[in-house]
Amino acid sequence: MGQGKILDLVLDNLHKVFFPEEWIQLDLTVSKTELLAMLIVDRYGEVIMSQISDYLNAPLSTTTGLVNRLVQNGYLQRERSDKDRRVVVIQLTDKGRNMMSEVKGSIESYLERINSVLSAEERQGLLKVFLKIIEALSQKDFVSGNSQVRQVIRKITIE
């Protein structure tokens, strides 16, 4: 199959991958970017703004506005860290945890449906292909054609 036909196939079916029926049924009152921010907070329990910014690959100013909206809408809360009172951490509220529970349940249902039609060998092959795709997309900025160098910000504990 030629690259043009593959591109057509991908574009014609993107909505099935990124907007499955289960997601449409969820009452998502947040944007996809806000949802990604909430997923990273859910994953780690509490994060700092720079972690969200790094995950979204967005400037800190953009991330601050996004988190402000989620705080205003009751999905996230800011609190001072117990370990260092100078640090503000971001956590999910009960409303945010409920939404993440719904979203993760929907994703699990979606993955179960995919798993039910694939053999163990096909699932293993798909995982290998998926990891290769992630690696390829992580190494190269395909829009500009430039290699990306990602800076890592580490949290240092000060005694």
- How many strands in all? 3
- Helix % is 55-70%
Total helix count?
7
Radius of gyration: 19 Å
Question: At the third CATH level, what is the topology name of the domain at 19-118?
Answer: Arc Repressor Mutant, subunit A
- Strand content bin: 5-15%
Secondary-structure element order, as H and E? HHHEHHEEHH
Supply the CATH class of the domain at 19-118: Mainly Alpha
**Second-tier CATH architecture of the domain at 19-118:** Orthogonal Bundle
Low-pLDDT runs: none
Question: Could you state the CATH homologous superfamily of the domain at 19-118?
Answer: Winged helix-like DNA-binding domain superfamily/Winged helix DNA-binding domain
For the termini, the CA-CA separation is 60 Å
Spatial sequence of strands, sheet with the most strands: 1-3-2
Walk me through this protein's architecture.
This protein has helices spanning 3-18, 21-25, 32-44, 49-56, 60-72, 94-117, 120-139; strands at residues 46-47, 76-80, 88-92. It is mostly helical and 159 residues long. It has a domain at 19-118: Arc Repressor Mutant, subunit A, CATH 1.10.10. Strands 1-3-2 form a 3-stranded antiparallel beta sheet. Helix 4 packs across helix 5 (60-72).
